[in-house]
Amino acid sequence: MARVSPSQSGVFNTEADQRVERFTESVSFDRRLYAVDISGSIAHAQMLADVGVLTAEEAGQIETTLLAIKAEIDAGDFEFQQSLEDVHMNIEKQLVDRLGDVGRKLHTGRSRNDQIATDTRLWVREAIDAIDERLETLQRAFVGRCDADAEILLPAYTHLQRAQPVLAPHYWLAYVEKLARDRTRLADCRRRVNICSLGTAALAGTTLPINRHNVAQRLGFEDVARNSLDVSSDRDYLLEFAFCLTLIAEHLSTWADEWVLWSTVEFNFIKLPQQFCTGSSIMPQKINPDVCELVRGKSARVIGNLQSLLVLVKGLPLAYNRDLQEDKEPLFDSYDTVSACLELAAPIVAGAELKVESIRSRLDRGFLDATTLMEHLIKLGTPQRTAHHQIGALVKQAMEADCRLADLPLEAFQALNPSLDESVYDVLGVDKAVAAFQSYGSTAPSEVKKQVRYWKEQLNLD
């Protein structure tokens, strides 16, 4: 973050060039840290009073004044000055203007380096909790569809080619699982974020008798950073959070891309809520899935932000370097982007309608029951590779006859495998194919019901 300006330091004999002020300022974007900065400063002041560096009265004055400054910022009545470079100096300047020497005592035993590390940890901790809440809301939207869609079959794809039939809830729960992994990654990341940096000062610590564990406890941190030199350069927690956001954006992009395809006339699987679509400036019939397209497109920004952060910290010598000021904008942008995408994804998922008749009318296309038929042969003792070849030959016959596998005469099946009898038709057709599944985690109706119950319990959706 920003250093002390020439006017605030006795070592300089000239003022900074105004172009340098414009180039180095960060208050235009780091002002959003004001609440956590004030929380950290109040905890620091209270600790200084506990160890006797400040009097209880001085700490009380600092806390009261900082809370008044926060109220002014909340209300939009606080004027941030670019000449003061960052949010920290803007707040400290106001504190000093109002309290004089008492305000000047606040920065005792800390540096801007550990201050900003603490602020960003506090901010990221809150951001993780907010993103987790929105992920849970999206999970609830998917699980909330499962009962109403319980009997609906969908074609599942590999290589964007029809593969096997699945129950619609099985599809929805696939996204719930992805979001669950996102949430566990965030929870794991939060453990490493929730470490207190304050009190390590510039890089070597301080000779003053501060109590870092006291500050950590006041701010709700689980532990304190053990190495002061590491604190000044550490941005691992920030990069890890950006990575978690990137994976969330990737999952949202996959979902959005799929539903863009599904909403086309060619697929005609789903009707998106019109309040989340837009029209065309020239074509009056258009109902465009713009929100889903932008969710897909905005993932590129989040991916790019992660790459920027990775390159930013590459090769920086210990400890603090001004380069690290550049970590805030990509961090904030990734958070804002993913948060906005999640906010819109949940109501889209909840409000979309599957076009059941359109889906059903074409379920018999693509030989979705071929794999189930192959496994029927395996159960009768045919080796898998042999069964695979035989069913491929049957599919070829059906393609040439322009019919379903279920429409082939029994003679066609028996010509390839004499062990087959009328029971072969018990596994043909998408409904029978789905009913034949048995394995845990499969699209078997009984398994899907178990998984729906499981997620309802996990998300308190009884």
SSE sequence, one letter per element: HHHHHHHEEHEHEHHEHHEHHHHHH
Q: What structural category arises from helix and sheet content?
A: mainly alpha
Rg result: 30 Å
The general outline is elongated
Low-confidence stretches: none
Give the percentage of residues in beta strands.
under 5%
List the defining traits of the structure above.
mainly alpha; amino-acid biosynthesis; Fumarase/histidase_N; single chain; 19 helices; arginine biosynthesis
Q: In words, what does this structure look like?
A:
The structure is a single chain. By secondary structure, the chain is mainly alpha-helical. The protein has 19 helices and 6 strands. Strands 1-2 form a two-stranded antiparallel sheet. It catalyses: 2-(N(omega)-L-arginino)succinate = fumarate + L-arginine.
List the helices and strands and how they pair.
Elements: H1 18-24, H2 27-30, H3 34-50, H4 56-75, H5 87-99, H6 101-104, H7 112-145, E1 153-158, E2 161-167, H8 168-193, E3 195-196, H9 212-218, E4 223-224, H10 228-233, H11 236-262, E5 270-271, H12 290-313, H13 328-351, E6 353-354, H14 356-361, H15 370-379, H16 384-401, H17 410-416, H18 430-435, H19 445-458
Parallel strand pairs: 3-4
Antiparallel strand pairs: 1-2, 5-6
Helix pairs in contact: 3-4, 3-7, 3-9, 4-5, 7-8, 7-13, 8-11, 8-19, 11-12, 11-13, 12-13, 15-16
Subcellular location: Cytoplasm
Organism: Blastopirellula sediminis
Pfam families: ASL_C2, Lyase_1
